[in-house]
Amino acid sequence: MLFEKKxxxxxxxxxxxxxxxxxxxxxxxxxxxxxxxxxxxxxxGAGLDIRDCADIKGLDRSFFRIAIMKHEHNLKLISTLNSL
Length: 84
Description:
The chain is an alpha+beta fold. It contains 3 helices and 4 strands; from the N terminus they run H-E-E-H-E-E-H. A hairpin with a 5-residue loop joins strand 1 and strand 2 (27-32). The model has no long low-confidence stretch (mean pLDDT 92).
């Protein structure tokens, strides 16, 4: 799990419209500079579940949380985000 977390953080930080925040757990927070509806729709269309943080005090719909998953799902997430 630690390897996957480091890998996904490294890859997320290469996407210029995403700011990824590291954490001590398997959930990562990211802030996007794109339309949240477009990002959600694209990821859900790829079969990936992503949740915005609008229900968390101090955050809004431009913040998303993702769980570290199996390697192939993490790669699919990064690939889908890169296609936006």
